[in-house]
Amino acid sequence: MEPSTQKLIHTFGALADLGQEIAGTGDFSEMVRTSMHLLLGTLALRRGAVIECSGPGPLRCVALWGLGDQALKGFEIDEAGMKSFLGCEIAESLVRNTSTGNVFLSRYRDKLTGEGIELVVPMVVRGEVTGLVLLGGKASGEEFSNDDFETIRAMARHIGVGIHTHRLLEQLAQRAEENRRLYDDLRTIYRDTVRAFAAAIDIKDKYTQGHSERVGKYSEIIARELGWSEDEVEGIQIAGYLHDIGKLIVDRDIINAPYHIDAKSSSELNRHPNAGYEILAPIRHPYADIPFMAKHHHERLDGRGYPDGLTDQQIPIGAKIVALADSFDAMTTDRPYRRRRSFEDVVVDLRESSGTQFDGKVVAAFARAILKEVRGETKDRRITKMLGKDYLEGEHVQTLLTDLITDLEGSHAKAQSL
Ligand SMILES: [Fe+2]
Q1: Which end of the chain is more exposed for a tag (fewer CB within 10 A), N or C?
Q2: Are 233 and 287 in contact (CB under 8 A)?
């Protein structure tokens, strides 16, 4: 085989290797280093460097071979320097060629010559200088041939494309990160706004301070126990915070009436689920079904609830959870006309109301979550914090919960087998 053919095949192979290297998704500096070694090896050059250029200013050395670490320190390029590399012939990139008028070469000619650099080839991608390839002379001492220039040009272009692609990917990753941060900020703003609304609802009702916040937390605990995804759990917490938002349009005196209210006031108060739906429906929530959970949090499984008298299967599961959380908080907090009920009483009520008012599966899940906390199986004691530390004290609490769970899960299994 002719030596020139052999060389051509070798160059062709090196180009293919280079292409593969650049297309790889590995480490960027490693990619540039390997590419430069391929170039140096193909032409048997003694030294070389790849410098990145992302606009006027200091140049960053990405790869270096056969040169001291400090050899290219302090190199800068300005607009004129970058311009003089655009559209220049490769022969004009020879350092010793003083007739080119290349601003960069004129400025650093002595320094480059002192370091043994003979050729400075720009990597131009889409009309922009992405960097420079600096090359020393051939180990054989021969001059660069036209074929060598062609090879250098092709390989420099490959490396330039690699740098350009890397830069684009970096920009893309940066933008994705910015978008993620913006999205997180928006979510935080949304959550803070919701909590502010919850506080506004609770301020209107002077007897139930913190009620909406607690309903949100209980709902979240139940949903998590039911195996909901993190996103769904966040959604139900929001629904809990907002379930009574419709009360904002109900007269303050009706909400704060200390004893039983008359039929007219009662029907006024009962408007709040629908009013809540009207307020929440036009908002684009980051979670599903929040307006429906607010609308149906006073429905009952037996159809005796309001506003629509829905029955078991018709009531959204989220609304069933919020309904239980809402009633549980009402039973376990003091009101002006009555003290809160004991936990024994509450358990009796939950057992009796399961299947008529509440969904047994939801009650069982809540009981399991409380039991886990009572047994010390949870990281923090969130339910205890809401109920006060004495409320769930005593051996009987665990027995009450275990019996309730057994009853509810037993009757659920029985219902399924029928
Ligand atoms: Fe309500």
Answers
A1: C
A2: no
The CA 361 to ligand 1 mean position distance, Å, reads 21
Amino acid at 61: C
C-beta separation of 240 from 322 below 8 A: yes
Residue 152's nearest CA partner among 139, 172, 135 is: 135
Residue reference for tokens 């080119």: 100
CA of 222 to the centre of ligand 1 (A): 18
Q: Given the DSSP bridges, would you call strands 48-52 and 128-136 parallel, antiparallel or unpaired?
A: antiparallel
For residue 360, the CA-to-ligand 1 centroid distance in Å is: 20
For ligand 1, the distance from its centroid to the CA atom of residue 320, given in whole angstroms, is 12
Residue 72 predicted with pLDDT over 90: no
Place of tokens 């309903």: 215
- Helices 230-242 and 146-204, axial angle in degrees (round to 10): 30
Contact 42, 147 (CB under 8 A): no
pLDDT tens for 24-38 read: 656 778 888 888 888
Whole-number Å distance, alpha carbon 286 to ligand 1 midpoint, is 22
Task: With residue 86 as reference, give the H or E element that holds it.
Answer: none
Q: How far apart, in whole angstroms, are the C-alpha atoms of residue 354 and residue 314?
A: 16
Q: Say what the pTM is.
A: 0.68
Question: What does the longest C-alpha to C-alpha distance in the chain come to?
Answer: 108
Say if CB 335 and CB 207 are below 8 A apart. yes
CA of 217 to the centre of ligand 1 (A): 16
Residues, the chain, total?
A: 418
- Backbone phi and psi for residue 109, each to the nearest 5 degrees, phi listed first: -55, -50
337 C-alpha to ligand 1 centroid (Å): 19
DSSP state of 94: B
Q: What is the distance of C-alpha 174 from the center of its chain?
A: 13
pLDDT band at 7 (very low <50, low <70, confident <90, very high): low
Cβ pair 238, 206 in contact under 8 A: no
φ and ψ of 136, to 5 deg = -85, 180
Whose structure tokens read 């272009």? 157
